[in-house]
Amino acid sequence: MADSVDKTETGTAFEELPDAPPRRRLRLSWSGRLGVCVVAFWMAIVFIGPSISPYHEADILDEALFIVPGSDNPYPETDYQPPSSVAWLGTDYLGRDTLSRTLYGARTTIGISLASTLLAYLVGVTLGIAAAVGGTVMDSALSRFNDAILSIPSIMLALVVIAAIGSTIPILIMLTGLIYASTVFRIARSLGLDVKVSDFVEAARVRGEGLWWIVAREILPNVAMPMATDFGLRFVYVILFISSLSFLGLGVQPPQSDWGSMVRESLSGLPYGSVAPLVPALAIATLTIAINLIVDDVSAHAGGRLAKRMI
Questions:
Q1: DSSP string across 224-245
Q2: Is the peptide bond before 255 cis (omega within 30 degrees of 0)?
């Protein structure tokens, strides 16, 4: 009889403890849908861009292609040619097709940025959640190390490392990923600490669930949407960071094209009315603005604050 009463009381106590909040379906506004379309377009270009480009990214167009019948100039200049049927978006300072280099550069710029952002999240979220649930000692050690990384200006750290060991695509991915992992760590730790003290996590502990179960089934699902919002912002920052390094000549090295280096290489064509530096700049702008439109929608759906859990 006593056992029955205890089981009844225990069951009643469990019923009073809350479960994790339900997930709501995300609905994008027209601006968010427009952003999705633009991002989908550039992602498609990443895969099919080189196969549909008129020329190879390193090809210098032949002078014969620009000879106008009946012209007195048998050897026309190939650099900074205006848009034409030969080069739809004109040529750059060496006479290379701007459209082809933009299509090839999409794969380089977006590919490096996406790989760097994924690496930053793999490291930052893992260490951030570990600091949130791992106890005072682990939290203090990881947080102090992360603060030391954050105290170094990112562009300065990148310049020092690249000057010391050179600039290759794997180095750019590793370096950028580790630099931005420090900011991801702070957000993941903050969200983890917030969810850790929630009632539904306490209910899971009372039921006897283990730490790994709580992290996988209670904490991670409830930080997923805010982290997804930050992922979009972080992706934009990484694109601009990689483009900035390339603009300084320390990112992707020629003859391989990326959008940042294309802007730098063709800046001298602006006084001549060349569109060569404007096309990659416009590509960067459209991609980053589209991602921001999506992030704004997700953030508004989450209550307007990145650190607010999606429920």
A1: HHHHHHHHHHHHHHHHHHHHHH
A2: yes
Task: Identify the burial level of 210 via C-beta atoms within 10 angstroms of its C-beta, where 0-12 means exposed, 13-18 middle and 19 or more buried.
Answer: exposed
Strand partners, 60: 96
Asked if 20 contacts 224 with a C-beta cutoff of 8 angstroms, the reply is no
Q: Measured between alpha carbons, how far is 66 from 43 in angstroms, rounded to an integer?
A: 32
Longest dimension (CA), the chain: 111
- 133-165 in b/e form (b: 16+ CB < 10 A) is beeeeebeebbeebeeeeeeebeeebeebbeee
Q: What is d(CA 170, CA 183) in angstroms, rounded to the nearest whole number?
A: 21
Tell me the three state secondary structure of residue 68. coil
In degrees, to the nearest 5, what angle opens at C-alpha 295 toward C-alphas 289 and 299? 145
232-274 pLDDT, tens digit per residue, is 889 999 999 999 999 888 888 888 889 999 999 888 888 888 8
Do residues 142 and 131 lie in contact, with contact meaning Cβ atoms separated by under 8 Å? yes
Structure pTM?
Answer: 0.83
Q: Where are the alpha helices (DSSP H) in the chain?
A: 2-16, 30-52, 98-133, 136-150, 154-165, 169-196, 199-206, 211-214, 220-247, 259-265, 278-301
> Across all residues in the chain, what is the average pLDDT?
84
> How confident is the model over 73-83, as pLDDT tens digits?
666 788 898 89
Amino acid (one-letter) located at 19 = D
Cβ 298 vs Cβ 141: under 8 Å:
no
